Amino acid sequence: MNESLFISIIIGITIASTPLIFAAIGELLVERSGVLNLGVEGMMIVGALLGFIVQFHTGSPYLAVLAALLGGMAISSIFAFLTQFLLTNQVATGLALTLFGLGLSAFAGRGYTEETIVLIKAIHIPFLSDIPVIGPLIFSLNPLVYLALVMVYLVWWFLYKTKQGLILRSIGDNHDAAHAIGHNVVRYRFMAILFGGAMAGLGGAFLSLVQVPIWGEDMTAGRGWIALGLVVFASWLPFRIILGAILFGGITVLQLHAQGFDIRISAQYLSMLPYLATIIILVSLRIRLKNKTNRTVPNCLGRIFHSTS
Amino acid sequence: MSISRFSSILKLSFLSVVLAFTSNVSADPVKAAFVYIGPTGDHGWTFAHDEGVKYAKEKLGDDVIMTTIENVAENSDSERVITSLARKNDIVFTTSFGYMNPTVKVAKRYPDVKFEHATGYMLEDNLSVYSARFYEGRHVIGKIAGRMTKSNVIGYIASFPIPEVIRGINSAFLAAKSVNPDVQIKVVWVYTWYDPGKEADAANALIAQGADVLMQHTDSTAAMSVAEEKGIYAFGQASNMREWGPNAQLTGIINDWGPYYADRIAAVRDGTWTSSDTFAGVQQGMVKFAPMNNNMPTEVKNEAMQTIIDLSMGKVHPFTGPINKQDGSPWLAEGETPPNFPDLLTMDFYVEGIDSKYPN
Predict the structure, then answer these.
(1) Whether B243 and A41 lie within 8 Å, measured CB to CB
(2) How close, in Å, is residue B68 to chain A by CA atoms?
(3) Residue B296 distance to chain A (closest CA, Å)
(4) For chain A, which residues score pLDDT lower than 70?
């Protein structure tokens, strides 16, 4: 295998993984606060559309990314309002959010299926990007790929190094106790859901702003669901999201390349692997929970908090 | 999948409400329904069918009421969608290969309703099949690709290993080989009709492995935009994709379903509809081409135009013997051309010379 092929495989994997990292790290924070939002796919597709529309009209990648963030946040605020104030069932509301997002974006994006935009390009740092192998692999990726990694770090830092992060985790583990000692459960969860929406929107926009310069209905094609699986795969630990995303995204890219080389592994088996891994991890989590050695699964995940005072 | 299924049910129920209100307007219009595999905005397969529906509507005016359902997954749910359409329509068109079994089932249950299934091969008294000889289009772009490639590697993004897709690969390869003996074709199966992200990944993988001309048998414009960005060539699929690849698109295979749809619906109106088996190509105008890009050499363009003329006069057949199968066993003898059934309609092998392994 020659060097440039190796580099383009690795770059292909980063491109396929990044939308998953964004969406999953957002959902991870949401779930750590004890909320299960199944609307990731819907928030992603809204982000993909808004990013595309703003890039098309303004040509400014900054505004496009901002629009995707705000769009994801706006649609997630519906979920936050319904589940936190009206105490609706989180699973049903999340599914509704996905359907709503897919339908809304298909409707609102009808005028944009014939358009194309300028993609956000990878960066080029003089000297550093020109170092063989390391240059293209470390110093000339797309700016949003770096941003995704920074977000993972920030979420880890927030959860484990700040007082607010500790409070958020305690709310996720036992919202009644957290409430009893005076923490505002609803406010924390509301903010976490908005953050999750923003990240999902960004993940969706990565597809339409970096991967392909087109807008297409349903173009997220199930990546939101993969992101949800990824959070479980990562056992709710931020850095494992990166590992999982590389596995999930990498398998897609690797099996495409394997076909080109005529390596005969059935594509179906390969696409199954990450999900198989997720099931195995779920089982091992279960065992560790039984032995009380696991502290990462939020105990209150998906449970409705009803303040009694 | 479940989401698109759900939304198609929502759309269906909405449309039936609309229909309930509109059906009394004109005397006795034909009610025609279409089931689509993807969104009409894909600018590929489904878009082309929808253009055909618009054409037929314009031609027949108040004589027809059209219902279209997008994003119907090729699973057990399609049967439910087809069934509910059969209850309210005179004729139902199902526009993807994977709808074959459900269409046959529903057709047996509703003998008074006419059905038309695209790209399949199962006929009933009230079920027609129709397909276009896209492989004739592949013959033309295969010749262009064979002339234009410098790396001698043509990249092919394929969806599912079904006869229609296999015909396209074989036809394109044979045509490319006829003008360039050193050419190879690299096939990557993405196992989806529509996933712009994955189609782009596949395009990038093929380019990284040396392909400098891309062909696709998937429905979105993603591969075309990748080709444009990377400065290589590609061909529009099902519709003109020039917008996404002004330099990359050499030409495109365009599916023109409009006249067929207008004829069949008019036949229902006139009471002359009978079950039929249509397999039309360049000659009948069902397969057309996007304008040739001016960036290719005149000789290449002329050769392509001449090929189109020969096809339209029925002078050439893309599969003309001697042709062996990939394993070396003989398929067609010298000068022989294959019959539609079973050879073309159930094709499940690569021809000799293709290096890629046949998918299991």
Answers:
(1) no
(2) 15
(3) 24
(4) 1, 264, 267, 293-294, 308-309
pTM of this structure: 0.87
Q: Are strands B249-255 and B287-289 parallel, antiparallel or unpaired?
A: antiparallel
Spell out which residues of chain A touch residue B359, defining contact as CB-CB under 8 Å: 267
pLDDT tens, B257-300?
Answer: 999 999 999 999 999 999 999 999 999 999 999 999 999 999 99
Amino acid at B223: A
Exposure class string for B301-311: b at 16+ Cβ within 10 A, else e: bebbeebbeeb
A7's tokens: 């580099």
Count residue pairs from A and B with Cβ separation < 8 A: 129
Residue B42, min C-alpha distance to chain A (Å): 6
Structure tokens at B201: 């990944």
Is B326 an 8 Å CB contact of chain A? no
- Is residue A3 within 8 angstroms of chain B, CB to CB? no
pLDDT in tens, A63-116: 999 999 999 999 999 999 999 999 999 999 999 999 999 999 999 998 898 889
